[in-house]
Amino acid sequence: MSANPYESENHARDEDKPPSGPGGLGPLDPVEPPETPPRGTARKRGRPQGKRSDPTYVLACAYIPAQLRQQVKIALIKADLEYSELVAQLLREWLERQT
């Protein structure tokens, strides 16, 4: 009798045998990894590249009063403008006044 209750006496473990597919239907085919597009190529699906992954942009943080931030958010929605666009515009105007 076999020491393993899940292995029948007629089934001998043979380490040299190739692995078989589900239900012992034959050898398993090797699984090839999916092809990945070369780096630098345009993506066809998904969201467009954002500022976070664009190397020409950097993150700039500042602490501002919460009430001011809330008022700005409301005004930006009405103006259909992004916060980063507003900040960039204001910083450019400030730089022009400095020269």
Automatic annotation (TrEMBL):
Gene3D superfamilies found in the cross-reference section: Met repressor-like
Record-linked InterPro entries: Arc_rbn_hlx_hlx
Amino acid composition bias (Basic residues), ranges on this chain: 41-50
Biased composition (Basic and acidic residues): 8-18
Domain of life where this protein originates: Bacteria
Stretches the record annotates as Disordered: 1-55
UniProt name for this protein: CopG family transcriptional regulator
